[in-house]
Amino acid sequence: MTSDNSYTKTLSLAATREEVFAALTDPDQVTAWWSAKSTTGSGETGGELQITFGTEEQPTVMRVLAAHRPDVVVWEVTSSPLIPDWEGTRPTFTMTTTDGGCRLDFTHHGLVPTLECFELCNVDWRRFLVRLGAHAEQHG
Which residues form the Activator of Hsp90 ATPase homologue 1/2-like C-terminal domain (predicted)? Predict the structure, then answer.
């Protein structure tokens, strides 16, 4: 946990920083690892990703605050019909090179234990971060 109690997770991946960066910024790759119905938009700095899950009519919208190849991706959730508690939070992905690939440090700033969705989101993020890593490892 960080000092503000936001959700954090660190994974060691057998993928390069560039491969993880691509999985976070390419709409088709985001759709694949996040089990979304579709992802449109731009994963570049200043862009927006519109991610539609399941039968959701309105997409979850991530404004891309930073996409600094290949080290950092920062999203700000501007719309989240599926999980309204996410609005205004900032999922942040930082990649560091290691001997076997890279370390992924993830913090979802604003996803804190006082939110109703915290426990479920904690379980879901663990699952999806593992899927992100597996996707990057397979598509590199």
Answer: 15-135
